[in-house]
Sequence to fold (169 residues):
Amino acid sequence: MRIAISGTPGTGKTEVSRKLSELLGYEYIDLNKLAEENGLVVGFDKKRNSKIIETRKFKNLKIPENSVIDGHLSHFVPADLVVVLRTRPYILKERLKKKGWPPKKVEENVEAEVLGICSFEAYEENQRVVEIDTTNKSPEVIAKVIKKMVDNNKFISRQIDWTEDFAGV
Fold:
């Protein structure tokens, strides 16, 4: 099984992906590194301070069976399961500030989380998508929840909507 762990930066993708790959005995794949190695980085956006990646070519990547793919664009990679990690926007904002991100980049990513951009794209691209709220859960707990879904072949999810948190603002 190929499992993609996606979500807005700061939702816990890397820690969850590493823990999950350990629990399942799967290969851990850093999608950013894989994109670089395969020449899929096509530029740099100075305004956003981020790499421009050719996501349409992700479909051509040879992803091994029994792997966990970590990256906020991993929902564009062919996978058997896409898990989108979600975090309450006000908590995400604090996490990104603690990482030392510039205010503009923090706001851009919080807005993406409020709007559910990664989830929207994941549902457009994939058959099996699960959203998990990581707000008050450790990476270990989240990895165990995902492992249980995989072990039982039951992928229960509810769509997360943070827009209610901002009603009337």
In short: Residues 2-164 form a domain with the Rossmann fold fold (CATH 3.40.50.300). The longest helix spans residues 139-152. The mean pLDDT is 93.
